[in-house]
Design a protein that fits this description.
Elements: E1 7-16, E2 19-29, E3 34-38, H1 45-52, E4 60-65, E5 68-69, H2 75-81, E6 83-85, H3 98-109, H4 115-129, H5 144-157, E7 162-166, H6 174-189, E8 193-197, H7 201-207, E9 210-215, E10 218-224, H8 225-228, H9 232-239, H10 241-262
Parallel strand pairs: 3-8, 3-9, 6-7, 7-8
Antiparallel strand pairs: 1-2, 1-4, 4-5, 9-10
Helix pairs in contact: 3-4, 3-5, 4-5, 9-10
Length: 263
């Protein structure tokens, strides 16, 4: 795996009036790594992804992708470059078939040379995510789990270099989550860099060796997953000051008990 970053954010900020939704965020992603982006609701995670994928401009800062400054890019330009994402609320074109939905992504997102090529890319993506058998069905008839896989197929048909997954497991049962997790690993094995926004810590920790933590728009932690989940700032951001204090007290009590037993 190359150590040269594929994506760099430098001091990225987004202000809505007096609200700093993203505040001076900087980090890098290496090719092929899976990184978890976590934080409480309203921390700025989705806003950050919207900025990186060109859905909204930053108030300040820079985005560098494969050595090129892409700060002012629009969404279609980001998609053509391979900066792709899924959406937390899955909204396929309901009257179109599953295959037509993914073909549209390949044709307009990835810039396939022809409708025939786009259709072939779409079928390959549907087969990869395991719903090729649903290709002819209207998207409106799909279950939530199948719609989530359709969303992944659309993103894969756009030939991502970096794929940002926004709450891809939300609403799924344990078996469906297990299948989605295995699928994300397979995507990364293709050499795609994956940034996964997720509230289910079991999923995040099973996939990511590195975590980024946003709180009130600021990046408060970036490092190995095992260290980050033990960071007091992260515990406090997720669970509040009172719980963090009780946790520290309990850990201190366990340490004293251990010392007494060893003594």
């Amino acid at each position: 795996m190359s150590t040269t970053p594929i994506l760099k954010l430098h001091g990225l900020s987004k202000h809505f009036g007096g609200i700093k939704a993203v505040n001076d965020v900087s980090f890098e992603l290496a090719p092929g790594e899976i990184v978890g982006l976590i934080g409480p609701n309203g921390a700025g995670k989705t806003t950050l992804v919207n900025i990186v994928t060109g859905r909204m401009p930053p108030s300040s800062g820079r985005i560098v992708f494969e050595g090129q400054d892409v700060t002012t890019q629009r969404a279609h330009q980001a998609a053509r470059r391979g900066l792709c994402r899924t959406f937390q609320i899955v909204q396929p074109f309901p009257a179109m078939t599953v295959l037509e939905n993914v073909t549209a992504g390949a044709l307009f997102g990835a810039g396939a040379a022809s409708p025939t090529e786009a259709r072939a890319q779409a079928m390959e993506s549907l087969a990869f995510v395991g719903i090729a058998g649903l290709a002819g069905q209207p998207a409106a008839t799909l279950t939530l789990a199948a719609r989530k896989r359709l969303e992944l197929a659309k993103s894969l048909a756009m030939k991502p270099r970096v794929l940002m997954l926004d709450e891809v497991n939300a609403g799924l049962n344990s078996n469906e989550i297990e299948g989605a997790t295995a699928l994300i690993r397979r995507i990364a094995e293709r050499g795609v860099t994956v940034l996964i926004i997720e509230h289910l810590m079991k999923v995040v920790l099973s996939l990511s060796k590195r975590l980024l933590v946003l709180h009130h728009g600021r990046l408060i932690a970036d490092g190995p997953a095992a260290e980050i989940v033990a960071d007091e700032r992260v515990v406090e951001a997720y669970l509040g000051q009172k719980f963090a204090a009780r946790l520290r007290q309990a850990q201190h009590g366990e340490a004293q008990l251990g010392e007494a037993q060893n003594g």
